[in-house]
């Protein structure tokens, strides 16, 4: 059935639902990032090749979305969302955490969190994505008198959740604030529908609703996070969702999970990404609110968060150096106003540099690896027979110099990556110019990152990302 027809049927089924505003709760939240069980078959090389292909598509979508602009979105002010126009009380606890794990063993380059949604709570595994603003789950819509859809055994049962409140298509929120919402509106009470497109070509179609999530506060108590905007996705397509039940949207937006949660938890969230090829039981946390691990002594490095390309998190870049040599990259490459800039994106695996930056970095790294036999590995430009190097060759040191003298010094394994036994490749991809560059999750790994939305600051430091 065509997605448009399915959406129309869902809208007609929901014509009797009315929106109800949710209340508010508070307390710090911690989400665990978890690794999905590995599928059978598939080599490391096949896995890395799929990352490259997915990242290329994702970069295309990021570029297109930035070019289109946020024509329907007002700026996110990181203040508590209103309840029918009234403010909501702040939570008693100051943080909460979610366990976080790599999805490498499921054949994806994503990181996953476990998420409890609805009343009573239903458990799901979601992709953590700082590059999108919609939180959604695969969903089984069953309003009275209608036959429900569904994508799998862990679909969200909206019919058994007492807190599931569809957002009407006639509401101002649907018309002006919700991403990728459709203009279809059979009746004023029909739910607001969406057709959401991702940078890697994946899509999700469904309806928007207000819901509650269950969170574990820093004091160990369970609480309800109310007033969330979630998507009930009846149809989805794309490799991004094969190993997960949906997406946790952490982009900069007043309707994203990050926007709603940070409004109640001190305006901050943080995460630490374990090595994507670490043991399956390795995990860390996605934390909302103050995180002692994010602010150790000595203080972390710090730079400004530029929040002009909503929902993306942009950082200023002063340059990139290799073995202490500052490369000749035109400054316009890092200028958001000139069509450039750099974003941090947990949903992109490899780091993707706009063409002038890519050519400078690839040339500098490859010069320092001269003498090691080259091998051809599609789709990478520079790959080496590391066995022939005898394991003694020192890898060049690359540093990304962020604005404010904040140097990101990733381990060499994050940009000269293992793609097969005895084979290493430069794990950096090229994006067209003009266009943004993306610091992907592999370059971010083994660092603690704190996004201080209230003060528009990004803090980071090296970390083993151990669970506490």
Automatic annotation (TrEMBL):
Alphabetical list of InterPro entries matching this protein: Aspartic_peptidase_A1, Aspartic_peptidase_AS, Pepsin-like_plant, PEPTIDASE_A1, Peptidase_aspartic_dom_sf, Plant_Aspart_Prot_A1, TAXi_C, TAXi_N
Protein name as catalogued: (wild Malaysian banana) hypothetical protein
Pfam families associated with the record: TAXi_C, TAXi_N
Signal peptide: 1-20
Family classification: Belongs to the peptidase A1 family.
GO molecular function per UniProt: aspartic-type endopeptidase activity
Keyword Repeat in record: no
Annotated region described as Disordered, given as residue ranges: 69-92
Domain Peptidase A1: 111-461
UniProt keyword terms in alphabetical order: Aspartyl protease, Glycoprotein, Hydrolase, Protease, Signal
